[in-house]
Amino acid sequence: LAVLFGGAVLPAFRGQGVHTALLAGRLGIAHARGATRAAVKTALGSPVERSAAHFGFERTGLRRRVRRDGP
User: Fold this and answer.
1) Mean of pLDDT over the chain
2) In sequence order, what DSSP letters do the residues of 13-65 get, joined into one string?
3) Model's pTM, two decimal places?
């Protein structure tokens, strides 16, 4: 299982398919190393989520952040 998170593209290069190419490369490396499944951690509605959709990834759950005030 390959778990992918932490990808970014500089503003000057956004909208040109750079992240999709990076994701393809990372998935290729994972496959070459024996991964038969992969998961991508993204923010809801983010460009990363849209890039992942190009590869057939689907949202399987939502993680909500909870902040507690005080000690």
Assistant:
1) 89
2) GTTTTHHHHHHHHHHHHHHHTT---EEE---TT-HHHHHHHHTT---------
3) 0.78
Q: How far is CA 19 from the centre of its chain?
A: 9
Q: Which residue has the tokens 């959709």?
A: 53
**How many other C-beta atoms are found inside a 10 Å radius of the C-beta of residue 56?**
7
- Chain-centroid distance of CA 65 in Å reads 18
* Residue where the block lists tokens 């990363």: 48
Measured distance between the N- and C-terminal CA atoms of the chain, rounded to whole angstroms: 37
Tens of pLDDT, residues 22-32: 999 999 999 99
Please answer whether residues 59 and 49 qualify as being in contact, where contact means their C-beta atoms are separated by less than 8 angstroms.
yes
CB atoms within 10 A of CB 42: 18
DSSP 2: E
